[in-house]
Design brief:
Two copies of one chain form a homodimer.
Chain A (H helix, E strand, L loop, with lengths): L1 E5 L3 E7 L2 E8 L1 H9 L4 E8 L5 H8 L8 E3 L5 E6 L8 E6 L19 E4 L4 H10 L5 E4 L3 H6 L1 H8 L4 E5 H8 L4 H9 L5 E5 L5 E5 L11 E3 L13 H14 L6 H18 L6 H4 L3 H14 L4
Parallel strand pairs in A: 1-4, 1-8, 2-6, 4-5, 8-9, 9-10, 10-11
Antiparallel strand pairs in A: 2-3, 6-7, 11-12, 12-13
Helix pairs in contact in A: 1-8, 3-5, 6-7, 8-9, 9-11
């Protein structure tokens, strides 16, 4: 199986209580691809500028990520700077230079057309919809969005949500999208917009998946996968994208998609997110071992397992 | 078995997005006692003023709470006013009138001396320590504290923590008490201060229990009990105290105290907290059925149960 991921590649400048890094490789597509690469084949569609080096690309290709879909154009790669000095759970943006990302139009290489899964990183909703329509034959479409699009491109986003099977967003985004303060009610409203399942990311507390009735099996109850910081949180950047990579990657590694698979996928999402934050940037995601992933899966499973 | 609870009885004026109530019965001792009353016998030590009516007392006695330890004095009962209009997870205090609570010195009636468990609500740490010493023969001492005491009475609090077996506080309080931003490290530091177990309350996300090595059994891993708002959150007041009541109450209902009991107790804490927030004040805690409690325990258990 294989996942086609559409997202951003960026150079990040990050300050956290543990230190500072400048212009290191980041972006939603990068974190997603690296995290998913431990479970399945990943193909990345993104755009970079002339400052994106062979060494940067090697970070992805060393993990087997297919980078033929990364478009190289004139100009500079997307740059973001932010800090987490007040609160490790919330980035304060210092600057955003969209650069080549500003005119990004995802182009799917012919070699990617047989991808079995699709993940839409957090880009303009109309672009997400275009990719959905092009890749209509995949087994499952996962998608992300953010406050900015919920507020500034609501009609386009609502169209896109009709095409997305599993939406992965955080508590605040769910409530904003549904215009409803109660999480369970907000989840019901979002599911009525199209997705068969909604994954609500709770940052350091894990994530909850809500199912549309009779989607992926029977049952009306949601499911929660907890997480716990195991080591020190050095840099929270990319935790949500790494979560999505672990979640989608695990699903793509399974024969069938049913509720049990989605529940385990939620745990693997938490596992990959918890690794991502242990080092600055993508460092920890570059050289994990499958045994480390399984070991942490067991720790998180035992974290809430009653005899 | 029986729990002796020391805490506050108050009249609260509360504004939430769901409405407003004035001068309704509240206070940490009240919420704790009502929640624990579904599991075991509860005896309450607190202080009230002349405005505390027979009807107020009946709310407690109807649930079988022994109120002989409530001292009636001249003056007005503790009053608190606050709102949750900006954030359902955080009360903004509008006024605090300590009134008779200002000079509260817990007096343990002779009839309470055979209590098997002790819970110290959030009062001055030196008073907590005095009660601990008086009640030294109980099987387990649970205790609460808050930011205010951590900052203004640290030396006294550190003395009290040597006497408390299980401390129940929230994320922010753990980090402040330990002067450490990483939760697992902060938990280790707090356990080194005395308690054999530390329950960290995460609000709507549940709670995690950390164990001192070899305390209550073997194992180095913490345990998390998740929660999920089932109905609308009408009024978050008292959720933490109701959590403590469910947690301590369940423990007191069991023959032995071991890790499995403490894990299940953490779930029952979440269950009672989730009921408390469904109505204003103590309304929901006044008339629960044991079947409703068990049903919700199962829902929370399934919320994270992998096959």
């Amino acid at each position: 199986m294989s996942i086609l991921a559409v997202g951003s590649v960026a150079f990040d400048t990050i300050v956290t209580p543990s230190g500072k890094v400048e212009n290191i490789l980041g972006g939603s597509g990068t974190y997603f691809s690296l995290a998913a690469s431990y479970f399945t084949d990943v193909r990345l569609v993104a755009v970079v500028g002339e400052d994106f080096t062979a060494e940067d690309e090697k970070i992805l290709t060393k993990r087997g990520v297919d980078t033929r879909g990364i478009e190289h154009t004139k100009g500079k790669t997307f740059r973001w700077g932010g800090h987490y000095l007040d609160n490790l759970n919330e980035a304060k943006t210092e600057f955003t230079e969209l650069n080549v990302f500003q005119n990004f139009k995802p182009r799917i290489p012919a070699e990617y057309e047989d991808s079995t899964f699709l993940f839409l990183g957090n880009i303009q909703p109309s672009l997400q919809a275009t990719v959905c329509r092009e890749m209509g034959k995949v087994k499952l479409i996962g998608g992300d969005t953010m406050n900015y699009w919920i507020q500034s491109a609501r009609p386009e986003l609502l169209e896109t949500l009709k095409l997305v099977n599993v939406l992965l967003i955080n508590d605040g985004e769910v409530k904003m999208l549904a215009e409803e303060k109660s999480l369970p009610r907000a989840a019901l409203k979002v599911l009525a917009m199209g997705p068969k399942a909604l994954v609500v990311k709770h940052g350091e507390y894990g994530a909850t998946i809500f199912f549309r009735e009779s989607a992926f099996g029977i049952g009306r109850h949601p499911f929660r996968a907890p997480t716990l910081p195991i080591d020190e949180v050095k840099d929270p950047t990319g935790a949500g994208d790494s979560f999505a990579g672990g979640f989608m990657g695990y699903i793509a590694s399974q024969e069938e998609i049913n509720r049990e698979v989605l529940k385990r996928a939620l745990f693997y999402g938490g596992v990959m997110g918890s690794f991502a934050v242990e080092r600055f940037g993508t460092e920890r995601l570059q050289s994990l071992k499958r045994e480390e992933i399984e070991e942490r899966f067991q720790i998180f499973r035992e974290l809430t397992h009653l005899e």
